[in-house]
Amino acid sequence: MRFNHPKPVGSPEPAAPPAQQHSDPEPLVVTEAHHQTPFLQEQDAATLAPIEFSVRYGFWEYVGFMWQHAGYLIRRRRIAAPARWYMQFKSTWAAGLHFFLQGRSRTTYQFTIDRHGIVRAGPAGVTLIAWSDVTGMRSYSRGRMLLLKRGTLPLPARCLDAAQSASLAGYATWIRALPGA
To answer: What percentage of the chain reaches a pLDDT higher than 90?
Structure first.
């Protein structure tokens, strides 16, 4: 009969020394790294006021966001000009095609942004985005783009009033202070 465990070759001794047994084992301590948002001071409460707005993206507005964001990503990789233009055109074209095929221009989304995260409600359901999933926020000519661990979320400036824009700028500063961002 064959066994599937290691044995020493030519010696009856065990391959490894037996494990030492303690009469008083130490307790096993398991720690999980939870994402902790920084403690907010009272003066931050006014800066980080909850934001509620609705948006219906236009095709050219969305393509503009994607063109600027693709340019940022490609410049960050330091790709030479001819390849950069091709990659920017190709990625923006693909994003525009998906926008059109998914019918996003016919959809109105309701957004709520507060200290707990981002809630996007649309006809397909409600999407909850925790701040731990947000890696950054970039400003573009058409508004701001939330950079998520898996994707992006454009927030057009035309949908926000002055107070909401100031609060969104406060959230951008807060995101930079988050650990791991």
So the answer is: 19
